[in-house]
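Today's session is about reading a structure prediction critically. Students often jump straight to the picture, but the first step is always the sequence itself: look for stretches that repeat, for charged clusters, for runs of hydrophobic residues. Only then move on to the predicted structure, which in these notes is written as discrete structure tokens rather than atom positions. Here is the chain we will use throughout the hour.
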Amino acid sequence: MFQPNLGRWMQMDPIGFASRERDLYVVESNDPENHLDPTGLKKYTLKFQSIKGFAPKLGNCGSFSWRIDFLLAEKMLKGQGGYIVQHITRSYEIKDKNGKKLTFPEIDTEKEYWEAFEVHGNDEQPTFADLAVPGPTDNFWLVASDGGEPSPDGQNLEGTEGWYEIKGEAVYYDGLTLPDKFKLPGAIKSAPGLAGTLDDPKINHPAADTSNTLTRSIRVKWNCCPGSESKKTQLVHRTPKDG
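Below is the predicted structure for this chain, in token form.
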């Protein structure tokens, strides 16, 4: 509770020195206009570090790649950490040159999944923000090459037209132990190297701050059917546009 005539907060921060503030009566870093912490339990603010300057790279026939870097805005020291858990949903409509709808098992079997990025502090990298060191990198892509670049020929989408959309909603959970539903890295083919699950993990964690959910999405379209003037993948929309 704030006492305006005294200009003081009348209650201590519920998370105590875990907030890394020397004054336990500081709330929302003394910047309530730009920080929202209704429970007083939030310790970290998840942000996108690299959106501006990392525009989607577009290939042909639906091929594209769009990379971002996650950032925790507050200091993180050795021994601290948790997981960024991102909920992914994907949709598409693809037709052959005769207008017949096509199906792609590699997409259909993973239309919805959850992936986890481990975040931790260490001696060399005590904070993302202070040292301008990026956090985990995430890449949205379709028919990209092994190097993450858009495949120039569109691979198996040659001779088709359609659209593809992918959306991610990410939350940082401080001190989280991954639920058993998360499999070993590689369980989700669309998220190689990450722990993931096709089933809703239903995370119930005291440090969860779902008000600080980062959302990004992108939709592309293409026409690689015979007679098309251009095979170039076209950007329909992306959110956010800048960062």
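Discussion point for the tutorial: The chain has a mean pLDDT of 77.
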